[in-house]
Design a protein that fits this description.
2 helices; nine-stranded antiparallel β-sheet; alpha+beta; Lipocalin
Length: about 140
């Protein structure tokens, strides 16, 4: 357990120290996106029940200055880079997570796989929708 914790801290520090700007995010990146904890409420058309996600809430947070995102898959801490190059275009890359094992990992595996496929988003009020080919694949609410 201590080794897992140390690995998580190491990955977090490594991720912070090697960040670099990938794209100019100044074009139409909504202020509401950054610094907000986006709680996952639906994935692949299915509502997320907290009892199916592991011990932690599934969420994302964006840090525009670094083009990085952080969050939780329900069991493991996650982080990586994102690219926002034009209005509503969004891609995730260099996705990393800690490697703890939890009893319920299904949602986390689906969530991480979904992030790899996302190519655009929609933001309406306190709801963020991630999409693949303009089809909604996940829904979040501002927490």
């Amino acid at each position: 357990m201590r080794t897992s914790y140390l690995l998580a801290v190491f990955l977090f520090v490594l991720g912070c120290s090697t960040s670099k700007k990938i794209a100019d995010n100044s074009s139409a990146w909504p202020d509401d996106m950054e610094g907000t904890q986006w709680k996952l409420i639906a994935l692949n058309g299915q509502k997320i029940a907290e009892e199916n996600t592991g011990p932690k809430q599934v969420y994302l947070m964006f840090v525009e200055e670094e083009n990085r995102f952080y969050g939780s898959g329900g069991c493991n801490a996650i982080n990586g880079m994102y690219i926002h190059s034009k209005a509503n275009h969004l891609e995730f890359s260099n996705i990393a997570s800690t490697k703890m094992a939890c009893m319920k990992m299904g949602v986390e595996h689906q969530f991480l796989n979904m992030l790899k496929e996302v190519d655009n988003y929609q933001l309406k009020g306190d709801t963020l929708v991630l999409k693949v080919n303009k089809e909604a694949v996940s829904r979040f609410i501002a927490n």
